[in-house]
Write a structure and sequence with these properties.
Layout lengths: L1 E2 L30 E4 L15 E4 L8 E5 L14 E5 L20 E2 L6 E6 L2 E6 L14 E4 L16 E4 L3 H8 L17 E5 L2 E5 L2
Antiparallel strand pairs: 1-6, 2-3, 4-5, 7-8, 9-10, 11-12
Amino acid sequence: MKCAPALRFIGLVLALAGCGGEAENPKNSGGTGATAATSSGGSSAAGGSTADVVIDRACSVSSDCVVQSLGCCPPCGVPNPSDFTAMSRASQYFQRSACANVFECAACTVQPGTNILVATCEQGRCALIDLLDNAVTVCSSNSDCYVRAPECCECGGSTDEYSVIALSSTSSLAYSTLVCSPTQACADCAPVYPAVALACVSGHCQMVGW
């Protein structure tokens, strides 16, 4: 295990100029474009309130989208999808006033195998994907699983033990469909992956043994 340094974490976003839309919860509910959101949950355990934010989810391709914490600081440990959302890559740089005074986030113990959330573009909107609840990780035995970089292109992607993800060996094309742009071309190379232990746990491929 390694300890991540104290990070300055960008909070959730203010509305992008000129965008409209319907009010929604900050999770991935219906509507299009920039969407106003109201939370009834008070403050995030990781620091900062999740109330009254506006999120822009408009996208054309999956590379337009990113995963973002709903709190001013990302939670430590295995991500809980309810603490995160997917949004426009451009909109993540807009900091909401509720997080203006959050300059540093607490250091977390970073664990391999916790990269389980990805963002995709579905019908023009960014959507959050929990890999442990998606068909791309479905398995029957440990031998059904393999490890890969989380980016569309494995060649040049992140291959350290804190970034790689576990997928079903039959889902390579399905995963590419989730995270790649339709016209995206990838270089041909053989990435060197870390020696990680994979297992089929509750029907889904996961990294284990850390």
